[in-house]
Specification:
alpha+beta, D-amino Acid Aminotransferase, Chain A, domain 1, Dna Ligase, domain 1, six-stranded antiparallel beta sheet, globular
Length: about 260
C-alpha cells in the first residue's frame, strides 16, 4: 500500500479548485497545498466571493445574482445597474460564456449565452481602469505578494481569446508607482486573510485611478501552472526558481513534527 505525504494541487477548475478533491483529501487525512474545501468551494461561486469580500471591506463592483429558474427582465436589471455591464456564469472560469454589454438591446442575448453555461449568473457594473493580477502565498506566518502583473488586452476585455490565444500582453513586474504597488498589495493580502487562504492564490483587480481604489474581480485558489501562466511568470520575476517556490508551498502545507 502506497502512503502519500502530501498532494500538490495543480488542477485548475473542477475537481481541484472547487473543494471536491480538498474534501476527499481531508477525509483521507492527506495534507495538500491549496485552500481548504470550504474556501475552495466558496470562491468558485463568483457572487458569494464578492459578497464576502465586500463584507470584509474590499471594494467590489455593484452586481446582481440571477437564477435560471426565476427569470428577471432586462428592464429590471437596467433599473438597478448602470451600463456597461458584464454578464458572467456564476461558476467556471476562462471567461467562457462571459459578455460585455454596452447597450440595452445586448443584455438579453448576453443573459441567454451565460445561462447556457450555468444556472446562475453574476451581472456586474463595468469599472474602467487598469487590470492587475496578483499571486499571494504564505511563508510561516507572513503573507507575501509576488511581483504584480498588469494585463493589457487587445480585445474589449480579458476574454477567452485574450487569455489563451495571445490577444493580451502580460507585463510582469507591472510598471507602477510605489503608491499603487502598496494599494494593490494591501488589498491582495487583505483578501487572502478574509478568505483564510492557503497555498498560492491569484487575485484579479481593476484599479480605478480617479478614486484611487482597487476593485476585486475574483479569486483563483488553484491558479494555472503552465509555462505561460501568470504565477510562474511572477515567481521568475521574484528571482526564485519554480522548484524552490513549490518546495516552499509543500513545506508550508506539511504538518509540524509531533
Amino acid at each position: 500500500k502506497t502512503k502519500f505525504d502530501l498532494a500538490l494541487m495543480c488542477i485548475h477548475g473542477t475537481p481541484g479548485e472547487d473543494g471536491k478533491l480538498q474534501g476527499y483529501f481531508d477525509f483521507l487525512g492527506i495534507p495538500y497545498t491549496s485552500c481548504d474545501a470550504a474556501t475552495s468551494a466558496l470562491t468558485m461561486n463568483k457572487r458569494y466571493t464578492v459578497a464576502v469580500a465586500a463584507f470584509g471591506g474590499i471594494h467590489v463592483a455593484r452586481s446582481l445574482h440571477l437564477f435560471r429558474h426565476t427569470p428577471v427582465a432586462p428592464e429590471t436589471i437596467l433599473a438597478q445597474l448602470s451600463l456597461p455591464l458584464f454578464v458572467k456564469p456564476n461558476s467556471g472560469g476562462s471567461s467562457i460564456g462571459m459578455s460585455k454589454v454596452n447597450a440595452a438591446q445586448e443584455l438579453e442575448p448576453a443573459l441567454e449565452k451565460a445561462f447556457r453555461e450555468d444556472a446562475q449568473l453574476l451581472v456586474e457594473e463595468f469599472i474602467s481602469g487598469r487590470e492587475f493580477t496578483i499571486g499571494v502565498f504564505k511563508q510561516g506566518n507572513l503573507i507575501e505578494v509576488l511581483p504584480i502583473t498588469e494585463i493589457k488586452s487587445e480585445n474589449d476585455f480579458f476574454d477567452f481569446e485574450a487569455k489563451y490565444q495571445g490577444k493580451s500582453t502580460e507585463i510582469t513586474p507591472a510598471q507602477i508607482s510605489a503608491h499603487l504597488h502598496e494599494v494593490l498589495s494591501a488589498a491582495a493580502k487583505r483578501v487572502y486573510e478574509i478568505f483564510n487562504c492557503r497555498g498560492v492564490v491569484r487575485i484579479d483587480f481593476i484599479y480605478d485611478e480617479a478614486k484611487d481604489q482597487a476593485y476585486m474581480l475574483e479569486v483563483n485558489t488553484v491558479p494555472g501552472q503552465s509555462a505561460a501562466s501568470v504565477i510562474p511568470q511572477q515567481v521568475r520575476a521574484k528571482n526564485m526558481s519554480l522548484q524552490d517556490f513549490y518546495s516552499a508551498l509543500i513545506q508550508q502545507a506539511l504538518p509540524l513534527p509531533a
